[in-house]
Amino acid sequence: MKILVVEDEPKAGNYLVKGLGESGYVADLARNGVDGLALALEHDYELIVLDVMLPQMDGWAVLARLRERKQTPVLFLTARDDVADRVKGLELGADDYLVKPFAFAELLARIKTLMRRGPVREMELIRVADLEIDVLRRRVTRQGERIDLTAKEFALLHLLAKRQGEVLSRTQIASMVWDMNFDSDTNVVDVAIRRLRAKVDDPYAEKLVQTVRGMGYLLEARA
């Protein structure tokens, strides 16, 4: 199980990572909010232990930005036993909180409780402009019209929609959709994007699948 710890205090951060490692977890450490958010968005962690008071970007801002893209469980660490702080964290999407100082055994107990809740339920319906993706039924419509996609086309569209507004490289797409290492001589991603565009973009005035030259592709509505 992979956990991200975002804690700026050196001793506390090192202690948490060491303790989690000795308890059988794989733990990464970020020492500020900007680095923590970047790691949280780039990797798929089962849990994030997030301190509130962080340099560069505080825990509130990290959580708010994270929840725009992912539903990774978050355990907040706060130095203030303030009801308003706890409520704010939960309203922003935190799953639990611990008030400093705390016993490491209590942290482990909270982690195990969060994990017993099972994986966070994925968004059932994703909308991008007039495009709707029903994830559970694997159904795609645009302007109310059904669009039939192959399994790989749906996986590609679902990936772009989950990360809408974020540029994904060909390497990332190949890895996540085809579970393959990207070969620069292989144009499988470009071909799949062309086929996807033919179905979800070409018949409509507003184009949603965007190309960022030299970087990759993204899905977003542009005025």
The named CATH superfamily of the largest domain: Response regulator
**Lateral strand order in the biggest sheet:** 2-1-3-4-5
CATH level 1 name of the largest domain: Alpha Beta
- What is the share of helical residues? 25-40%
Question: What oligomeric state best describes the polypeptide chains here?
Answer: single chain
- The name of the CATH topology of the largest domain is Rossmann fold
Protein name: Response regulator
GO molecular function: phosphorelay response regulator activity; transcription cis-regulatory region binding
Pfam families: Response_reg, Trans_reg_C
Keywords: Cadmium, DNA-binding, Phosphoprotein, Transcription, Transcription regulation, Two-component regulatory system
Structural notes for this entry:
The protein has 223 residues and is an alpha/beta fold. The chain has two domains: 2-115, Rossmann fold; 125-219, Winged helix-like DNA-binding domain superfamily/Winged helix DNA-binding domain (Arc Repressor Mutant, subunit A, Orthogonal Bundle), CATH 1.10.10.10. It contains eight helices and eleven strands. The protein has helices at 10-22, 33-42, 59-67, 83-92, 104-116, 151-162, 170-178, 188-200; strands at 2-6, 26-30, 47-51, 74-78, 96-99, 125-128, 131-134, 139-142, 145-147, 209-212, 216-219. The strands form three sheets. Strands 2-1-3-4-5 form a five-stranded parallel β-sheet, sandwiched between helices. Strand 4 (74-78), helix 4 and strand 5 form a beta-alpha-beta unit.
